[in-house]
Specification:
alpha/beta; single chain; 15 helices; 18% strand; globular; five-stranded parallel β-sheet
C-alpha cells in the first residue's frame, strides 16, 4: 500500500520507511513557530523543570502578533517575556512589532519554511503552511515546550481526506467560498484529526494565496492539517524567495495511497458562501437573508493578503461604507500594508469610510482592535464565528470572503458580491 504526502513526510521525519494511520511516532520538527500568547506558558514549563534550553535557535521563528502593540499591562508582559527569551537564547528569526505581522503569513513569505518539512506551533492555524507541501500543525503549550526543548513531537499518524475540486469558479467566488462550502458539507468535525489534501484542476490553477486560505481553515473542520502537493506554482513561489528545488523535498501521494474519505466539489456550482453563527459549518448562500450588519472586518491569517485587499478595493472604489457600519481593514503583514499603500488600496479604503489598522491578528480573536460589543453583528473574513470569539457573547459573527465583506459593508446588510461582478471583470 502506498502513502499519502503527509504519511511520507512523517515517515521521513521519524526514521521509518513506511507509516500507517494510527501509528504513534516521534517526529522531528524542522521549525517551531512562536508567538506571545502560548509561548510564555511553554517557557514556564521548561523553566520550572530546569529544562530552559532550545534545541536549535536557528530553527525557531518568533512573531508577536495576537495582542500587539500591547493593549494592556498583561499583554505587555507577555510580549516582554517572548522578546527577552528571544534575545537570551539567540533566536535568529525574530519578526518584532513593526517588522512582522500575523505569524503564519509572515512565515509563509520568508522562504524559511520549505516543501517537505515539518512545523509545529502553539496556534491552531499553523496548518496554513500546508499549502507549501509541508506537514504543519498546531499543538498545545506542553507539546510546544517539548518541541522547543528537543525539536521533537509525538504524533499519531493521521488519516487523509482527499478533496478534489474541479472546474472553474464563477466570477465573485473565491477560495474562501470553496473552503466554507466544503466545511458546510462535511461538518465542523468532518475531518476530525485528518489531513485535508486538496487536488483537482481548480487547485492546479489556483495561486499560492488562495491555497493558503484553503489549508488555513483545516482546523475549522476538525482537521490535523491541510496540504497541497508541490507543483510549478509552488516552485515559482519558492524561487521568488530565493529558494531553489535542491533545497527541499517534494512529495506526492502514491496512486495506491489510502484515503479515508474522498470529497468531490464542482467549483462552478459553488456560490458566495456565508457561515452563520455560531459555527463555521453553518454555511448559506450570501444574500439569502437580509441581515443588517454593524461591523465589517477584513483581515486574519485566512484573508489578510494582498489579493484579498485588492478584492475589497475593487468593490469599495468610488463607493461608501453604509451609515452605521464600522469597517476595519487589517493587512496581515508590514510588507502587505506597504504594498497596499503603494497600490493606492489604503486610500480607497479610507475614502470609502473604512478604518485601516496595523498588521496583527487584530479583532479576529476578540482581544484587540475592534472588539465586538453586546448584540453587534459582524461580517468577517476571519476563520471562526464561535460565541464570544470576537468579543461579547451576544455578538453575532458571519464568516465570508473579503469580497462578500466589502459588498455587505457598502449595502449595510449581508450581500452577494456578484452584484459587483462588472467591477471585478473590469479590474481583471
Amino acid at each position: 500500500m502506498g502513502m499519502t504526502i503527509a504519511e511520507k513526510i512523517l515517515a521521513a521525519h521519524s526514521g521509518h520507511d513506511h507509516v500507517v494511520p494510527g501509528q504513534l511516532i516521534e517526529c522531528r520538527t524542522d521549525w517551531v513557530l512562536c508567538h506571545e500568547i502560548t509561548t510564555p506558558a511553554a517557557l514556564r514549563m521548561l523553566e520550572e523543570r530546569g529544562m530552559d534550553q532550545v534545541f536549535n535557535p536557528d530553527q525557531i521563528v518568533a512573531v508577536p502578533d495576537h495582542s500587539v502593540p500591547a493593549m494592556n499591562i498583561k499583554a505587555a508582559k507577555m510580549y516582554q517575556k517572548l522578546k527577552s527569551w528571544v534575545h537570551e537564547k539567540g533566536i535568529k528569526h525574530f519578526f518584532d512589532v513593526g517588522r512582522g505581522g500575523i505569524a503564519h503569513v509572515v512565515l509563509e513569505n520568508t522562504g524559511l519554511m520549505k516543501p517537505g518539512q515539518t512545523l509545529v506551533s502553539g496556534d491552531s492555524h499553523t496548518c496554513n503552511a500546508g499549502a507549501l507541501g509541508t506537514f504543519a500543525t498546531g499543538v498545545g503549550s506542553t507539546d510546544l515546550a517539548g518541541a522547543i526543548y528537543a525539536g521533537k513531537v509525538w504524533f499519531k499518524v493521521p488519516e487523509t481526506m482527499l478533496i478534489r475540486v474541479t472546474g472553474k469558479a464563477q466570477p465573485g467566488v473565491t477560495p474562501k467560498d470553496i473552503v466554507l462550502e466544503v466545511i458546510k458539507r462535511i461538518g465542523a468535525d468532518g475531518a476530525n484529526y485528518m489531513v485535508m489534501e486538496w487536488v483537482g484542476d481548480y487547485i492546479d490553477n489556483l495561486d499560492m494565496e488562495g491555497r493558503f486560505t484553503l489549508t488555513n481553515m483545516a482546523i475549522e473542520a476538525g482537521g490535523k492539517t491541510g496540504i497541497v502537493a508541490v507543483d510549478d506554482t509552488t516552485r515559482v513561489y519558492m524561487s521568488a524567495r530565493g529558494v531553489t528545488p535542491d533545497q527541499y523535498t517534494e512529495y506526492q501521494s502514491d496512486a495506491d495511497a489510502s484515503f479515508k474519505v474522498i470529497v468531490e466539489v464542482d467549483a462552478a456550482q459553488v456560490e458566495p458562501t456565508v457561515a452563520y453563527p455560531h459555527i463555521p459549518s453553518n454555511g448559506r448562500v450570501a444574500g439569502s437573508d437580509r441581515i443588517a450588519v454593524t461591523h465589517a472586518y477584513v483581515g486574519s491569517c485566512t484573508n489578510g493578503r494582498i489579493s484579498d485587499l485588492r478584492d475589497v478595493a475593487r468593490i469599495l472604489k468610488g463607493r461608501k461604507v453604509a451609515e452605521g457600519v464600522q469597517m476595519i481593514v487589517v493587512p496581515a503583514t508590514q510588507a502587505i500594508w506597504k504594498q497596499a499603500a503603494q497600490e493606492g488600496l489604503l486610500e480607497i479604503f479610507v475614502d470609502a469610510g473604512a478604518s485601516v489598522s496595523y498588521p496583527s491578528c487584530g479583532a479576529c480573536l476578540g482581544m484587540h482592535s475592534g472588539v465586538l460589543g453586546p448584540d453587534d453583528v459582524c461580517i468577517s473574513s476571519s476563520n471562526r464565528n464561535f460565541v464570544g470569539r470576537m468579543g461579547d457573547p451576544s455578538a453575532q459573527i458571519y464568516l465570508a470572503s473579503p469580497a462578500t465583506v466589502a459588498a455587505s459593508a457598502v449595502a449595510g446588510f449581508i450581500s452577494d458580491p456578484r452584484a459587483y461582478n462588472d467591477t471585478i471583470n473590469a479590474a481583471d
